[in-house]
Design goal:
The complex is a heterodimer of chains A (about 325) and B (about 290). With about 325 residues, chain A is mostly helical. Chain A has helices spanning about 1-10, 15-40, 45-70, 75-95, 100-120, 125-145, 145-150, 170-195, 195-205, 210-215, 220-245, 255-265, 270-290, 295-310, 315-325; strands at about 155, 160-165, 165, 245. A two-stranded antiparallel ribbon of chain B has the order 1-2. In chain B, helix 1 crosses helix 6 and helix 2 packs across helix 9 (about 220-235). The chains are: A mainly alpha (about 325), B mainly alpha (about 290). Chains A and B meet through helix 5, helix 6, helix 12 and helix 14 of A and helix 3, helix 4, helix 9 and helix 11 of B.
Chain lengths: ~325, ~290
């Protein structure tokens, strides 16, 4: 309902005018991504930047689901980890080249998401949250228990990505790849939202009944967005696996799924930039507050509650509104 | 063989009784607000850990148990008053918002518990000795009987509350049709608060009853909460009878599954149940028939 209000506040005549800030914002993101390694060319900063970018990729996808399809996933960490482990296992157990294992893993996760989403999204209500919750926990338990393949709680080593005969390694090389993927994901998501697909989604969020009267098959569109967001999470998972060279089942935990939802909600539902900012702020926060480690969980909970009460749209859309009013 | 069966059934019913208490809490809050309260498991933890802390202070066990349940009720009231009510003001919050807030509450309470208490695993003394009783080839700890009796009593009291008292009837009316209930002069805000207090009390009761058997810690509520939720789904979210049957059934499935199939995957059974219910029986065993399809 709330997202509908946001949509209706952006009247049609201004859409053309919005094209400029959009490319401006994309340019800003590109500048920012290039500036990081130039201004701070040390491994630690790049490492943190890579983690932020990976979280941001997942969040942009998750935000399409939460913000536009109006459904929550409480199992995105499961899709992320499944992508990571599938790619790692295909490469290490079956000897597939990594460049082939990665897309295969993403496709497998997309198929799984489709199988789970199809029956669930036909039901009215928030059943997807429950289905993804169940699936996520099952994935986490399987990864921990099948230690013959996954190494169990101790984790497993992952073969590196070899492209054109060269092994991709080191923070700076991976930063370039992951930053490029992030930029492309943001660009793709923005285009998707402004396309007929995006309009269908926003109509759905406004009023499902009205949208269906206009010929939009709501279950079908929700399912597509869900599969897309799961595939994006899996893609980020495969990148993480081959970048880090080591995987543990902690990546699949329910808590990690919840953290991803917090990033999206804090940054701003139905805002691509909100997802990026949310991922950035909430990934940095624990790094900055290491002294307060014991209070981390408490502060995450408090941030989530306060955001929903005081900025239910999330910080980016709220700030954007304030700026517009100030003009 | 018979003994093994009996042993698994007894274990399953004991665990199932706790799931039933947690599931009742989910259903009560669901009926009042249509939200899924992801902090429900945290009430179980507060019950268990609260009783442990009070016993450590030197209080007699019975008093510690009562105070822990009362304390959890107050926490439940505060959660509704401080975290959910501000978002519900003016009826502007949708269900997604409420669900996300309860996730925040759950993280906050878990984080608070690890700061106020600690991260270690604790146990509560059994209510009446720990010498197992032999019943037909199975050996059952007396605490299991406490769990079953306590749950049965809670369910009976709850039934009387909802069927015999004005407050209980008001809560049922709100569940059926909030607008109509409001027109009849029922305060939906009061119903929401009462629902949270009641759900917290049930969860905390489960927490104190099971703490002597399964131990407790600041994160003990996570799995119990999620499994109670699975039980509520199985029985049909919002149905009280369904919550009890769903809880006991889930406990039995888990115990028999762990005993005869795979103990490593014991914890996965509840989540397979969630998926199976969603795919094949979306209304649960006793839920609304033919739940809306889009």
């Amino acid at each position: 309902m709330r997202a509908a209000a946001i949509v209706s506040e952006a009247p049609a005549p201004r859409r053309a005018a919005r094209a400029l800030p959009r490319s401006g914002a994309l340019l800003l993101l590109a500048v920012l991504l290039v500036a990081v390694p130039l201004l701070a060319p040390n491994a630690y900063v790049l490492e943190v930047a890579i983690v932020i970018a990976l979280n941001a990729i997942v969040c942009v996808g998750l935000n399409l689901l939460i913000g536009y399809a109006g459904q929550i996933s409480l199992g995105h960490a499961g899709f992320f980890a499944l992508g990571a482990y599938a790619s790692a296992l295909l490469a290490s157990r079956l000897g597939w080249p990594v460049w082939l294992a990665m897309p295969a893993a993403v496709a497998a996760v997309a198929l799984l998401a489709w199988l789970v989403g199809r029956p669930t999204l036909r039901l009215k209500g928030h059943y997807l949250a429950m289905a993804t919750l169940g699936l996520g926990v099952i994935v986490s338990i399987v990864l921990t228990n099948e230690d013959r393949y996954t190494g169990g709680p101790d984790g497993m080593p992952v073969p590196p990505l070899v492209l054109f005969g060269r092994t991709l390694q080191g923070e700076s090389a991976w930063y370039v790849v992951i930053a490029a993927v992030l930029w492309l994901t943001v660009w793709g998501a923005l285009n998707l939202i402004d396309s007929p697909v995006g309009r269908a989604l926003r109509a759905l969020h406004g009023s499902e009944v009205a949208a269906e009267t206009a010929g939009i098959d709501s279950a079908k569109w929700k399912l597509r967005v869900f599969v897309l967001s799961a595939a994006i999470a899996a893609a980020a998972g495969t990148l993480t696996a081959h970048y880090a060279g080591f995987l543990t089942p902690a990546k699949a935990s329910f808590l990690h799924s919840v953290e991803l939802v917090i990033m999206v909600v804090f940054g701003g539902m139905a805002s691509v930039w909100g997802a990026v900012v949310g991922a950035g702020v909430l990934t940095l926060l624990p790094q900055l507050l290491t002294a307060l480690k014991d209070y981390e969980m408490m502060s995450f909970g408090a941030i989530l509650i306060a955001t929903m009460i005081f900025f239910p749209r999330g910080i980016v859309p709220t700030l954007a509104r304030w700026l517009q009013r100030g003009r | 063989m018979g003994g093994a069966w009996l042993q698994f059934v007894a274990g399953g019913l004991t665990a199932g009784a706790i799931y039933a208490l947690v599931a009742l809490g989910f259903s009560i809050v669901y009926n009042a607000s249509h939200a899924i309260n992801f902090a429900q498991g945290e009430f179980v933890m507060i019950g268990g850990m609260g009783a442990v802390a009070l016993v450590a202070l030197g209080l007699p066990l019975a008093l510690a148990v009562l105070l822990a349940v009362a304390g959890a009720m107050i926490v439940g009231l505060l959660v509704q008053r401080l975290a959910l009510e501000p978002a519900q003001a003016g009826g502007r919050a949708d269900v997604v918002t409420l669900i996300i807030i309860t996730i925040g509450v759950s993280l906050f309470l878990r984080g608070l518990a690890q700061v106020v208490w600690d991260k270690r695993i604790h146990t509560l003394p059994a209510f009446s000795g720990s010498e197992p009783i032999a019943i037909g080839g199975a050996r059952i700890v007396p605490q299991s009987l406490w769990v079953l009796a306590g749950t049965a009593l809670a369910v009976l009291l709850l039934g009387a509350f909802f069927n015999r008292t004005l407050a209980g009837k008001a809560m049922r009316a709100t569940a059926i049709n909030p607008q109509a209930a409001q027109l009849m002069g029922i305060s939906t805000r009061g119903v929401m608060r009462a629902s949270f207090a009641l759900a917290a009390a049930l969860g905390a009761l489960g927490g104190v009853l099971t703490a002597p058997i399964t131990f407790t810690s600041y994160e003990a509520g996570v799995m119990l909460g999620l499994k109670g939720f699975a039980a509520a789904m199985l029985g049909g979210l919002g149905s009280f009878g369904g919550a009890v049957v769903g809880g006991l059934l889930l406990g039995l499935l888990e115990s028999l599954g762990a005993g005869f199939v795979s103990s490593a995957y014991k914890d996965a059974i509840a989540f397979v149940v969630i998926l199976a219910v969603l795919f094949f029986l979306p209304g649960g065993l006793f839920g609304a028939r033919g739940s809306d399809r889009v």
